[in-house]
Structure formats: structure tokens, C-alpha cells
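Sample pair:
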Amino acid sequence: MWTHLTRAGMALAVAGGLAGATAYGARELLHRQAAQARRAIGKPLGEQAPAGDKHWKKKYGAPVDLLVLGDSIAAGLGAERPKHTLGGRLARGIARDTGRSVRLRTAAVVGSESSMLASQLTSLPPSYRPDVAVMVVGGNDVTHRVPVADSVRHLAGAIDELRSRGAEVVVGTCPDLGALRPVPQPLRALGSRASRQLAAAQREVALERGAWVVSLSHVVGPFFITNPDEMFSLDRFHPSAHGYKRTARAMLPSVLAALGVVQELPFGHHAPGVGGSG
């Protein structure tokens, strides 16, 4: 009996050692792959997006105040001209479909995590009251391994603050990082899973707080996966002008619904208190 227990203990010790070595090796592999991805992506676009803030289609009158918050996608990094940024695209789409002018204000900052939404809000004048606020954030939370609970807590706080200002809120959930071709496997697959988990949590907390939600991995993700050369910019990480066009087109129905212009929502859009379709 003692011999049996000793052998069993040795077997468990060996198995545990192998498992530990495997886990250590996996972590080292992921660290190397993350470094490889950073080198492949680099910063060819710099860290400053085109400034799209202005009064769009001013001659239309009766302005809609549009606020954009979040990370580099919200800021428009990768677009070559202000009108090609996410905010610029949304402003022109709102003006076209409402017949009203749009005053765009972009508080989004390149490189932001969800924890930085609060500082973006404090940068606004206390008297500022947007009609609708659009937020896209989460990618940097995933790459920096921020716990999901922390990410959605900061998102919830930003939604509550915006709604206290009387704004309707539209949240574009974290994009699927599995579309990033410069990131090698298995890191890309892990990033895809983590980004989808964060997106699901963002959707839940946003709907609970009365925000509209657009599941970007559903409504625009397939375009980035199947046509990366057209959809991504020079760094193969941020959207190109065409990528922003697709993203803005995908988000516009929920923005218009938040403004009371449309009632029906397509697949991947979720109305507060309903959950939407898809």
C-alpha cells in the first residue's frame, strides 16, 4: 500500500511539474507572440487622429449634438481626412437621414482603456448636453489584460454620467480581435475569445443602464475578416477610410433609433429594455 501511494504521489508530482512547465511555456510563447505583433504593427499612423470636430451641414439648421468617446477607433486613427473618421461619417449620416445639422465633439483619445472614459467626460464643459453619445472602447482593455469586471464598471459609470446629462447613449461593443492578421496564433485566437467575452459583458451592462448597443463583431466584423486589405489601414490594426465607412454605416441605425428617427433595428443591434435582434 505504501509503495502504491508513493508511486501515485510521484506520478502526481511529475504530472504537476509537466503541467507547470507547459503553462510556463505557453505564457512565454504568448509573451513572444505579443512582442512580435507589436513589432509587426508598430505606429506608422502616429497617435493623433484627424480632427473632425465641426458643425457639419450647418445650413440644415436645428442641430443635433453628437459626442464620440472611447479609444483610437472612436477617435478615427487610420482615417486620412476628418470626414472619414467615425465621428465624421456618423455626423454626415445623421444629417442626411434627419435633415438636421450636426455639431460633432470628439472626446475619444487614442490608446484609451475603459478606465479613461471618466477623464474624457471631465474634459467636457459642465454645461455640455449632447443629444446622443457614441462610445467604442475595449480593444486596449483586452490587449492590456484588464479584468472584464473592471472594464464594464468603468463603462457603466460613463453611461450613467451621460444619461444624467440627458444624452441617449449608443455603445459599440469591443471588436473581434481575431480579425488582426499580424497577430500570430494562438495569441490571435485567445484575443478573439477575450474580446468576445468583453463584448458580451459590455452589451449586458449597457442595456441594463438604458443604452443602445451595436455588436460590432456581428455587424461589421465579417467585413474585416474577409476583406482585410480594404478594411484595415496601413498598420493593419486600425480601420481604413473604407473600414470607418462600414463601421459608421453599421452603427447608424442605433444612433438614429436613439434619436427617435427609426423604429426597426437590424441584426446585431439591441434596444434598451428589449435586447434587440441578433
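The two ends are 59 Å apart (CA to CA).
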